[in-house]
Amino acid sequence: MDMRVAAYAVITGDDGRVLLARWTEGRRASWTMPGGGLESGEDPEDAVRREVREETGYKVVVDELLGIHSRVIPAGQRVTQGATTPLHTLRIVYRAHIVGGRLRFEKNGSTDMAGWFDLDAVGGLQRVKLVDIALGMAGIDRA
């Protein structure tokens, strides 16, 4: 079984909107929380700060750990072409706030854009399940 540990951030603006990044793989694209996989030996808080910066252009401070979501994806349901083993994902979710930078899109990465969304619009987006899981952990009602 393969394993992937990743760290993500729930970031809301003063206007109540939430920051999302658009994940792409091949022709597939879905909105997700900004964040991503830990590098070997990397602290999860360092990883989430690095990933948010890479994917959105913003510098953040981590406020609190919201929770950890664990999921095993059967080999046949993985998006990775040719995967023959299940994938165990551990997703560490933090609340964070912006302290610098400006919105910009990642180049040559796993995301191709980022943006701010009104909570009532999130339900209409093509999104990964992590968005709803993370917002739930943060106690944020999408209206």
Describe the 3D structure.
By secondary structure, the protein is α+β, with helices and mostly antiparallel strands. Helices cover 18% and strands 44% of the residues. The chain has helices spanning 44-56, 119-122, 129-137; strands at 2-10, 18-25, 28-32, 35-37, 58-73, 87-101, 111-117. The strands form two sheets. Strands 4-1-6-5 form a four-stranded mixed sheet. Strands 3-2-7 form a three-stranded antiparallel sheet. The protein starts with a strand and ends in a 6-residue tail after the last helix. The model has no long low-confidence stretch (mean pLDDT 94). Keywords: Hydrolase. It holds the Pfam family NUDIX.
Architecture blueprint of SSEs:
Blueprint: E1 2-10, E2 18-25, E3 28-32, E4 35-37, H1 44-56, E5 58-73, E6 87-101, E7 111-117, H2 119-122, H3 129-137
Parallel strand pairs: 1-6
Antiparallel strand pairs: 1-4, 2-3, 2-7, 5-6
Give the termini distance in whole angstroms: 38 Å
Determine the fraction of residues in helical runs and give it as a percent range. Answer: 10-25%
Total beta strand runs: 7
Figure out the total of helices: 3
Roughly how many Å is the radius of gyration? 15 Å
Helix and strand content put the structural class at alpha+beta
Order of helices and strands: EEEEHEEEHH
Beta fraction of the residues? 35-45%
Which regions have little confidence, pLDDT < 50, spanning 5+ residues? none
The largest sheet has its strands arranged as: 4-1-6-5
